[in-house]
Write a structure and sequence with these properties.
single chain, mainly alpha, Four Helix Bundle (Hemerythrin (Met), subunit A), binds fe (ii) ion
């Protein structure tokens, strides 16, 4: 990718009033996941099998998350974009094909680490670190294009109710495992008001057992301050968070 920073930062959205941003929350989660992966790849101890295995597991989880995310974008968002403006998703769809290959290359690289000799492993770990960094860099620029160029098309052709309907179809297609994976990264990545809005919506609409599972995940993933703020906003006890 050779897009300049000036080009990436150019405002392409055409909305004059705040519009529903279908990408915003999940992309915050993806960005946090990628920064965590970079940190883990940089901090791995090549001579500690447990540390190396933890990194391998993290790369596998990141690969699953990225693959699931781009497949949902292809199925629901690109279909909508092509319906309202043929060709609108072409550039990003091509990048998704590249990302699928990159994701498999990362998996392949990570899976080979435990089989390296002690002498080979430091260089192999450093090479994986570089690969993770470049993959993340591509994805960060890619997501920015989606949030500007794709949103500009969606906002020009659809009202918020129409975009929310697409979002609803996408969410309804997620498996419980995909939903948990998304929330695992979205919950700590969102701003407090966004997090409260998401959980308040679930409290109102989701079955109580499902909401309690999400609350337990939030308690696990948030620091004490963020959790306290969320619990107070939801009107639930800060101490347990399990009594809605
Ligand atoms: Fe994408």
């Amino acid at each position: 990718m050779h897009t300049s920073l000036q080009e990436l930062l150019a405002v392409r959205g055409t909305a004059t009033a705040p519009r529903f941003d279908i990408y915003a929350s999940i992309h915050k989660g993806v960005r946090l996941m990628l920064t965590d992966l970079i940190t883990s790849a940089g901090g791995v101890d090549p001579q500690d099998p447990a540390s190396v295995q933890q990194l391998v597991d993290k790369v596998e989880a990141a690969a699953d998350f990225c693959l699931s995310h781009l497949e949902h974008e292809n199925t629901f968002l690109h279909t909508a974009l092509e319906r309202v403006q043929p060709g609108a998703s072409q550039r990003i769809a091509t990048e998704h094909v590249d990302h699928e290959q990159d994701i498999e290359a990362l998996r392949h690289h990570a899976r080979a680490l435990p089989g390296c000799t002690a002498e080979e492993r430091p260089a192999a770990c450093h090479a994986l670190y570089h690969a993770v960094c470049l993959f993340s860099a591509h994805n960060l620029a890619h997501m920015h294009l989606e949030e500007t160029e794709h949103n500009a098309v969606l906002w020009a052709h659809l009202d918020d109710a129409g975009i929310m309907a697409i979002h609803g179809q996408l969410l309804a297609s997620l498996t419980p495992a995909e939903m948990t994976m998304s929330l695992r990264w979205m919950l700590p990545a969102l701003a407090p008001a966004e997090r409260l809005g998401l959980l308040a919506g679930m409290k109102a609409k989701a079955p109580a057992p499902v909401f309690h599972v999400v609350l337990a995940l939030a308690r696990e993933r948030l620091n004490d301050e963020a959790w306290g703020q969320l619990a107070r906003g939801l009107g639930i006890p800060v101490a347990t968070g399990l009594t809605a």
